[in-house]
Every structure is written in structure tokens, then in C-alpha cells.
């Protein structure tokens, strides 16, 4: 190979090293949102007996998505045209393919960094989408079923939304605006969480009645990683270290702060106390709501979106989620992903159609003149069409995937009764917290298995599968005194631990 050829490989004419550096940094920030961000957020918000299982669901999804992504999925989302909503599948595993300039052939755009950078950047978005879905299925979904669900949903749902809105598909051609995944990621994960929770069924009655977080400090660590990691989430989507990337980062943080404070005010007004778990919810809904709009709207638009995402999802979670029979009896969304992602994602996409500016649209590289405030009321209807497609597609395909796993593959969607009673130790043979060792001479305490066996015996004796039995004044699952049990609220990631 000649010196000129070597130089062309090392520093090709199309390469902008600054843009490449920022894109890789943004991708790494997004990766941190899943591992360890959502891992520790979920582990802190669930009961102690589910901490390992919740982390492992995210950990598995992150690794599994990457393997599928490079073998076939990336090209479905960002490759050559095959269908109006899907590219042609195929691998991206050869050096000659990944070292060349990145292009999105169906969208007819290119970037001044290598294709390998684009593949990794889009992978971390796909991975966190599956990790978000896990939040709705915690504390009862079979891990084997989850192992099969991840590649199937990635292929038949996520990639379809990605191609349709970002990769050059029909919604992209229509002009639907989604800056960084309000529809592709959050609306799709929220819808899949809602539908899948119905198919899997609810948690144990005692888990729904008492789902008090086991480690709020750990949850706050995860929440902080999630917030700061969002700088890469939204700041990386102009595919350049551009002025609009800076705008997106600023407005992301502005909207999130407003949403968090608004949610806290709602807690104070209705519950008379500010809740840190409520503040985490408000943070998440703000991040989700600004995602489709980040670089399109002005600062005042980001503030309005933050106020809306601090109020409407709060109402959805704390009123509809606790009073509607749909949520109290049929759809057990463990961490309220329906409210924080489906509701907030739809809201953010709709408000993008209202408040997108001409300057922001042009800075992002679009040729549209913004939204309704610029005299383009049509954009609002386009945003509604985009939301309806993502919701409808996920209603159908999440259901089909669940049925395929359950009826064709014959893999139960739920854990066994014993696993549901015991938790991590039965499923993974591990416990999250081990603050003691066996000491010679000490009388051993009752094990989780022994307490669960007593419960099973009493259940079978009385013929009530949902009986909550208390031995020696303690909750059988958590060892928590009966006096500090939570109240029945569906177990959502909400203001469940507040006492008036």
C-alpha cells in the first residue's frame, strides 16, 4: 500500500476529527445511561429481592442488542431501502465497510465521520430503548422470555420506527419531526411496556401492595447519570459538534429542571410533602418531553414543555394510574414507564409541532419552516400521524412477539410462583446485599427459601394464591416489619412512599 493510500486511511479528506470526537463522546454518554445508569436506578427502586434481576435485565439487553445490531439490525434501521418502513437487513462486520464515510442512503445524507462511529452511536439508542421497556416488566417476567423478547422486539419494532423516522422512511419523507427519539425511543418503549405488561400479567399481590424502594440513594445515582448522559442523547443527534448541538444540550437541561420542579410543586400541592422519587419522575418526563424538540424549539418553548411534562404525566401516574381499573387490575406497569415515556413522549412530539422554530429546523438540517408558531399548523397533524403509527405498530407487534414466545416457543412469560416469592436468590442464585458472613456457633436465621416454603404451604392449605402471610410480625419477602408496609398503589415509580 502506498504512502498516499495509508494517509487516506488515517486522515481521509471527508473526516472532521472534532465531529468524530464529539460523536464518540456523545455515544459514550448515552451508553452510560444504560450501564450503569438504568441498572442502578432500577436496582434502587425495586424491592431488595428484585435488585439483581432488574439490573441483569438491563445488562443483558445492552449486550444482546449490540450483537444483533452489527449482524443484521443496523441496516434495517439505517440501510438501503427495502420497504417504506424498513431497510434491507445485513451485517456490518468487515473493515472495508465500517471505516468508510458514514452515509444514510435512504435519507440521502452523509456525515464527516466513519460509519463505525454511526453504528455505535445508533446502537446505544437501541439498547436504552430495550432497557426502558424492562422497567415495565420487572418483578415477574421470566428471564428466558426476556432473552428472546429483546432480539425480536429490536428487529420487528425498534428498527421499523428508526428507519421510518430517521433512516429515510415514509415518516421522514412526510416531514415528521423527532429530534432525538421522543417517538423512536420513548413512545415506542412506553407503548411496548404498556402492552407487554398486560400480556405478562401483574406482580404478586403482596409485591404490588409493598413495592417500597430498597435504596433511594442508589436510585439517585442512576437518576443523575441519566440526566447528565442526556447531554449526549440530544446533543449528539445533529451528527456534528454544531451550534444546534449546543442549543439542544442547553434546552435539554432547562426543560428537565422546569419539569422536575413542576412535579415537585404538584407533590407539595396534593400530598403536602416534596418527594425525591417524585422529583426523579419529573426529571425523567422532562428529559423525555424535550427529546423530540431539543434543537428545534427556543428556550421559552423548552420551559413550556417542562411545565407540561411536570403536570400531565403527574396526573396520568397519580390519578389515572391509581384509580382506573385498566391500571389497577389489568396493566401492572412496575415503574410507570407508560406514564413517564408513552405519555411524556406523545406530549413532547405534539408540542414540537407547535413550538418548532424555523431557525432551529434549518440549523438541524431540515428544510421545513418550523411548527404552528411559524404558521405551519400542518406540522401538528404530521406529529399526530407519527405518534399514531408508532403506537399502532407497537400495539400489534409487541402482542405478536409475546404470543410467539408463549405459544410457539412454549416459554412462559412469567416466573414460577416460587421464583416470584423468593426473587433473585431463586432466579440467579445471588443476593444484592450480603452484609454478614456465616459465623461458627451462631444459630442460623430463617432463610428466604424457608419463609417462602411456609408461605406456599399456607397458600395451598387455605386455597388462596394471593394470601399475604405474616410470620413473627414480619413481611415474608422483605423481612420488613408489618407496621412499615406500603399502601396499595399499583407499585408505580411514583409518590408511593409519601404519608399525608
UniProtKB/TrEMBL annotation:
Pfam families per UniProt: Ammonium_transp
GO cellular component: plasma membrane
SUPFAM superfamilies: Ammonium transporter
Annotated keywords: Ammonia transport, Membrane, Transmembrane, Transmembrane helix, Transport
Predominant localisation class: membrane
Domain Ammonium transporter AmtB-like, residue spans: 21-433
Coiled coil: none
TM region(s), chain numbering: 20-43, 55-74, 119-138, 145-163, 183-201, 213-233, 245-264, 276-294, 300-321, 342-364, 384-405
GO MF term (any one): ammonium channel activity
Subcellular location: Cell membrane; Membrane
Renumbered residue ranges of the record's region Disordered: 473-500
Biased composition, class Basic and acidic residues, residue ranges: 491-500
Protein family: Belongs to the ammonia transporter channel (TC 1.A.11.2) family.
Protein name (Swiss-Prot/TrEMBL): Ammonium transporter
